[in-house]
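Exercise 7. Given the encoded structure of a 204-residue chain, write a plausible sequence.
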């Protein structure tokens, strides 16, 4: 008789989010940073990830640069491509959320419709919108990538804040102005919002 030791039963149900969260000892959530280029989204997101990691919480950052150089490297900056960029990000984000991972997204995502779409894909209860409301003049002074200068010279079309509009979120979970708050202050405000949701505990 043939040896049956190499045959394993196939269970009929994939493990769900609840089991993943129990394994990790945390609850997942999407922390979605929106704001102008140079507002401080990525800087705050990276600092937040480090603080959550230090507390033993598993996180993943989805950032404009790392997504556009990989999964979305076939997309440009037309309106249709911007929408598709955010749609794919939201779908990937939902996979992380369903795996119990605290997910941090940092994208300009310049209008309410596009952010509503992301929220609908991920699930409104799991979507925390963080508005990094740093004034345009401060973002332009920083111009960390030289993009504002190019936009002013007409070398970049449809650049948010210069030649394309940015719609401020109507009901963000939190608003941060990095021209007034230190990085530590911004992160502490975020921890106050996030920790009770992901651990059930408040920050001491």
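Solution.
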């Amino acid at each position: 008789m043939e040896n049956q030791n190499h045959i394993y039963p196939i269970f009929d149900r994939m493990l769900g989010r609840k089991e993943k969260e129990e394994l990790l000892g945390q609850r997942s959530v999407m922390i979605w940073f929106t704001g102008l280029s140079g507002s401080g989204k990525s800087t705050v997101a990276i600092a937040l990830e480090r603080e959550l990691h230090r507390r033993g919480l598993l996180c993943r950052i989805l950032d404009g640069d790392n997504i556009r150089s990989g999964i979305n490297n076939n997309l440009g900056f037309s309106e249709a491509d911007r929408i598709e960029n955010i749609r794919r990000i939201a779908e990937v984000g939902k996979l992380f959320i369903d795996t119990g991972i605290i997910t941090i997204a940092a994208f300009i995502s310049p209008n309410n419709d596009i952010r509503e779409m992301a929220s609908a894909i991920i699930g409104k209860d799991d979507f925390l919108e963080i508005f990094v409301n740093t004034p345009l003049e401060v973002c332009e002074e920083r111009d960390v990538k030289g993009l504002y200068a190019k936009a002013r010279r007409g070398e970049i079309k449809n650049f948010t804040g210069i030649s394309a509009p940015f719609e401020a979120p109507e009901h963000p979970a939190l608003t941060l102005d990095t021209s007034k708050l230190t990085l530590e202050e911004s992160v502490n405000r975020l921890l106050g919002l996030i920790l009770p949701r992901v651990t059930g505990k408040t920050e001491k």
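Remark. Strands lie at 30-34, 59-63, 102-106, 127-132, 174-176. Students should compare their own answers with the one above.
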